[in-house]
Every structure is written in structure tokens, then in C-alpha cells.
Amino acid sequence: MRHWLWVGALVLWLWLGGMGPAQATAVTDLPATPPASWVFDEADVFSPSTVNQVNRTLTQLSQDTGFQVHVVSLRRLDYGETASSFGEKLFQRWFPDGGAKQVLLTLVARTATADLQAGSEVIPLLPSATALSIVEDTLLKLVRRDVYNQALVDTVTRLQAVLSGQPDPGPPPEDVERIEGNFATAAETRQTKDISTAVVVVLLILATVIPMVTYYWYVQR
Q1: For burial by CB atoms within 10 Å, which of 55, 99, 100, 189 has the most?
Q2: Cα distances (Å, whole numbers) of residue 6 to 2, 101, 128, 173
Q3: Phi-psi region of 197 (alpha: psi -120 to 50; beta: other; left: phi over 0)
Q4: 5 pLDDT exceeds 60?
Q5: What is the architecture of the domain spanning 31-163?
Q6: In this model, does residue 185 exceed pLDDT 80?
Q7: β-pair partners for 114
Q8: Do 64 and 95 form a contact (C-beta atoms < 8 A)?
Q9: How confident is the model at residue 7 (pLDDT cuts 50, 70, 90)?
């Protein structure tokens, strides 16, 4: 009886622990310096082919203009942290000298929020209204439809044009086609998590109820 109760308690602890704040990302959890790849996909929402394509685009942009764009995707943040506060802290961590030619785009998949930080030499080419439109109209509009790959490609394409001194192409048309990838969308991830949670709950109930019924049957004999 005690053994079954211990198993039930262990299952409950693992279930609650897996849903706790340990999954949240803090600034100190990320590398102390920018990674070699322009895209740091901690949330695992972009396909490898899209990441490779974007890396090539951003490498060319860096070679042509000196501007460097870094994209960071996160699953979720600590309580009270926002995409903006996280992006500001990470920008200061990665570029303590001010990062005059740096751009940092932070995406939080769980809340479908994002932030864009830019250095002093970037701001003249990327005024606040344009930066806001890139985040809201180009990136997040598709992210909220779980179209992560297309959102990243469109965002980087628009940033490349603006930072190269070309006219801002603006947000993409509404009827964009989805770029498929070999990854689970946010909706699929939530569905899988809900199913897993239900299975754990059932196992917990069985681990608790079955020993009690067995014990009751044994006593009645």
C-alpha cells in the first residue's frame, strides 16, 4: 500500500515539476556572447532549412553593410518578464559596448510577443514606427497563426531591405502561403501537452485508487 502511494506521489511531483517555472528562460540561461548562428532557436519553432536560409541572408547582409541581425526564440519567460524587458537585458549582455550596428529580435513563442532592439547606427535606418511595424505586422501577425517559418523569412527579408538602404517593402500581403517545416506548431504542441497531462492524471488516479480498492477487498475477505 505504501509503495503504491509513494509511486502516486512521485508521478504527481514529476507532473507538477514539469509544468513549473523551470521551463522559463532567464537572460543568464543564454550564452554570454552572441552564438555563431544568427538564429538562436531555443523554442525550436523554426525548421532547419528556414534557419539555414535566414543565416545565409543575414551573413550576406553583414558582409554588405556591417549590420548584424540576431534572432532569438524562447519558449517562455520568468514571471513578470516581458519580451521587451528580456530583449533589453540580452542586448546589454551581448553588446556591453552599445552594439552600434547590432539588431536583436526576440520572440517569445508561448505568449506570441516579440521585441526589437537596435544600436545607434541602426536607428536612423530603422525608426521606431518601422521597427514596430516589422514586429507587429510582419512577424507576430503570422506567429499568431502558427506560421513561424514564413514569419521569420518575411521579417528578415524586410530587415535586409531596410538596412541595405532600400525602400521599406512593408508587411507582406494577407494571403501568404504557409511554408511547411518538420516541426510542431504551437497549436500542435499545446494539443500534445494537453494529451500528456490527461494521461498523467489518469495514471495518478489509477496509482492511488487501485491500491485502495485492493486493500478494501482484502479487508472484506
Answers
A1: 99
A2: 6, 57, 57, 57
A3: alpha
A4: no
A5: Roll (3.10)
A6: no
A7: 107
A8: no
A9: very low
